[in-house]
Structures are given as structure tokens and as C-alpha cells.
Amino acid sequence: MDPDWWRDAVVYQVYPRSFADSDADGLGDLRGVISRVDYLRGLGIDAVWLSPFYPSPLADGGYDVVDYRDVDSRLGTLADLDDLIEALHEAGIRLIIDIVPNHSSSEHPWFRAALASPRGSEERERYVFMEGAGADGSEPPSDWQSHFGGSAWERTPDGQFYLHLFAEEQPDFNWSHPDVRKEFLAILGFWSDRGVDGFRIDVAHTLVKDLAHPLRSQPTIDSLLPEDGSDPLYDRDELHQIYREWRELFDRYDPPRMAVAEAWVPASRRVRYASPESLGQAFNFDLLRAPWDAAAFAEIIARNLRFADEAHSSSTWVLSNHDVVRHATRYALPDGADLDAWLLEGRPLGPAQALQGDRRARAAAMLVLALPGSVYLYQGEELGLHEVSEIGIQDLQDPIWRRSEGRQKGRDGCRVPLPWTAAGRSFGFGANGSHLPQPRWFASHAADVEERDPGSMLSLYRSAIALRRLLRTEGGVSGLPAVRRDGDLVVIEREGGLTSVTNFSSEPVRWSHGGRVLLSSSDLTSEPTIPGETTVWFGELHESSIAEEAGS
């Protein structure tokens, strides 16, 4: 088996609670994922990244874990997960699962034992407990803020405080404690032995904190992190001792288990997480923040290819995930738009806005699929789904809404269950509704509608992934590509003759090229002209090779 399969993989993120519901309880589950393996195979992906499926009170969408070695009973059983691994592997698809090492659920046995134990006990030392500040100890130990709003400290009945960088139901582990380190090595081994191929490490930059007194100030979590690892909470150099231990474990398997870090750190620091001695790969989130602009895209692509080369890793390309507004919607709104304010308005996009977002999303998908490295897709982007802004306040589930005191609506809009069919109560998601409300416009984006339309977003993704796979297997996409900007055009030239050209302007641009058109994100009316907001792939491939790949 290829130990480097992940370097150029197309990975599809499944948010299981919103993917497919097999038992009509309104919540997606593992049997639902199994029922759609043929769909995933038809898409042409190399791996599935499965978001948390562990037992959880769902204070934060499953990222509050009670048991790291089991499956939430609402989603299935360990036997169901074994069946999913087998079904994916039979389809030629690998499985990556989420590991949440910064914090557990407050219902985790360790934390319940900590609350039941006295100050200074071994049970409390596994988490971050501290005495309060002020004359009577009633003030939080520091000004550290939670990502979800408010103080990052919660007071316990006996007067101590515990740290939670996210919701109060997500207490942070103390990674200086040997029990924590041993436990997660055992967890990683448990899933590796079960056949899991890799791990996505949630907030990989947060595990180690500087807890020396006096605690240093952290007035805002939104400012840029320093590039020397000196922040008290994030991206500290000591992290990589932990990840070296994990790498030693991963490399005992054949093939070695892969890992990818979710690390919101400066690009210059990302190489540490992506090095062969550490996790091996790290998410590049720069395109999640980029405006629809040729200069911005060209700079981000060139910079991240260079960093990946320096780390002896491969780059990653991400346009959407479960934490951000879907990119088809971001590209439909004016550059610099306040996304939180737009979500709070609760109004869907206008028809003209939606069409522009669709055009740009199609072009962006082809652009990233033309690049070397791994492309991480988020469920539903291949259907062209937009953010669901119409969710009523009464239906919100994300703790961000509550903890921000209504200033932010949260991430529910990108987590709405998928539409599989144009008809049915929940568009084929399940037989008895869905845990988040689906809008009526989902019907036109349903998978069964798009499968019949050769011009749909789904058809475009399938074609682009198939061509990418063909070029990769022929060995024509090795090495760093030439990346350049020519006015409103971003041009990617790959070894083997593939040239990808993206027109970021709204007007057609003349282009003189060699090779024939392999694929275009929108209809070409005349040559040598590239329509506005369009990506075109040019190259020379044998007809027999294209037919063979299309048939497979």
C-alpha cells in the first residue's frame, strides 16, 4: 500500500449528524454514511474525514467527547463503525477520523472524578484547575477569553476555577500530566488497530499552555499570533514533543497512519506541524479568508506551495468546512462583508447574488483541484450548497449564539442536513425530518437532481476529480507547478502539460494557449476567450485514457 497516498488526496469531510439518517430520528448516523458509500465512490474521492461520532452531550456538535473509544448510541455502535471502515476500504476509500485532544466533555469520567475530588488531587491535575483572583478568590485567574465568548474560566462549587478555551462544557486537559499523554497515545493506537487510516487533530495548536504565575494577559483571541511561539495559550514550541511521540506511534503501522493538524497559526509556523517528524500535514486555511481576487489567490497558492516544500510535506487546500460560512455564499457577498451581520439578518441571497456565488464556487473548485497537495472538500459543496441563513433563533444549536449573547448566530447554517432527493419531508436525509431545518431551495440542489444534469455542480466535481486522478496516476503532476498572475488571470502550469487558467474578473479575457480544453467551469462560447469568473483546464491527454477513467 502507498504510504504517501495522503500527499495528493481528495478528502471529503462527512459531518455525520447531518449527512444521512438511517433510523428516522432526525439525526444522521453511521449506517446512513454506509448507505451513501456508492455516492462517495462515484464522486471519486480518496478518503473520508469523519467528524466526531463519539458519545457526546452535543454542547458543541460532538466536539465535547465523553468516551474516545466508542460511538454515540444515537449514531450507531462500534460494530457499525467497523462496517463503515470495511465498506469504505472495499470502495477504495480510506478513513480519517477526528481526534479532540485539547478538551473533553464535562461529562467525561475523568472530569466528573475531578469535580468530586479535592484541590490538588491527581484527578484535578489532569485538567487545568486554579484558584481565583481577588481578595476572596472570586475573580477568574486571568482575563483569558473563550472562543465562544465570555471568560475562559468557570468556577466550581468549591470555589476553584477550571479552564475552557471553548464552551464551559469543554474543560481543557492539562498536557503536562503524564496520564493525559499516555491516554491519547492509547486512543490513537486503539483506532489505528481498528483500521483507521489517519487522524485530523482538532485545534492542534492549543494543547500546551504557559501556566506559570502570574498568568500573562490574553486580551483578545482574534489578534495575530506571534511568530516565535511565545503566546501563553497557542502554538507553543513544546507542542511538538507531543507530536513527535505521536509520529513514532503512527510509523509503527504499515502503511504509517497519517495526520493533519488544524492549526490556526501564522503560515511560517505551520511547517512545524507538517514536518515528517511531527504530524506530517497541516491545514492551510488562507483561502477561507481570501477575497475573490486574483492577486490574493496567486500569493496564497505560491506561498503555501513553498512552505509545504520546505516542510517536506504536501499542501492542503480548503474552501469550506463545518466551522465557516460556505464558500459559494462568501463569494456571493461583497468583499469585506460582515458575515455575522448577514447571518443575523436571516435573509437568503438574492437570485443574482446566488448565481455569481455559484460561478465563482465552480471556478474556485477547479482551481484548487488543479493544484498539488491534498484537497479537503466539505459535504454539500459538490452540490453547490449555500449557507442557510434563514434558521430561526429557536432552532439554533451552536453554543456561539448563547455565549456571544446574540451577537453571533454561529455555525449551524453550514451544518444543515444534506438534500439527497428533491422530494420528501427532509429531501431524502431521513424519513422523519432533520435536526436542523432545511430551506425549500434545497430541492434544486438535491443529489438526485444534479446527477441527471451534466451541467450541475456535482457533474463538474466528478469530472474534475476524475481528470485529476488520471493526471496523477500518469505521473504528470509531480513537482511544484509554475504559478503566475496575469492581470485578472491566475495561471497554474503543471508538469505533464496541464494548464489551469482562472479568470477572476466578471468580463471575458482573451487567452492564447497550447493544448485543447479538457474541462471548463462554465460554457465556452468562443476561443481564445475565457468567460468571466471561470476556470479552464488545457492539456493533451489520450482519448483512450480519458474514456477509461470516465468509465471507471
UniProtKB/TrEMBL annotation:
<protein>
    <submittedName>
        <fullName>Alpha-amylase family glycosyl hydrolase</fullName>
    </submittedName>
</protein>
<dbReference type="InterPro" id="IPR045857">
    <property type="entry name" value="O16G_dom_2"/>
</dbReference>
<dbReference type="Pfam" id="PF00128">
    <property type="entry name" value="Alpha-amylase"/>
</dbReference>
<dbReference type="GO" id="GO:0004556">
    <property type="term" value="F:alpha-amylase activity"/>
</dbReference>
<keyword id="KW-0378">Hydrolase</keyword>
<feature type="domain" description="Glycosyl hydrolase family 13 catalytic">
    <location>
        <begin position="13"/>
        <end position="415"/>
    </location>
</feature>
<dbReference type="GO" id="GO:0009313">
    <property type="term" value="P:oligosaccharide catabolic process"/>
</dbReference>
<dbReference type="InterPro" id="IPR006047">
    <property type="entry name" value="GH13_cat_dom"/>
</dbReference>
<dbReference type="InterPro" id="IPR017853">
    <property type="entry name" value="GH"/>
</dbReference>
<comment type="similarity">
    <text>Belongs to the glycosyl hydrolase 13 family.</text>
</comment>
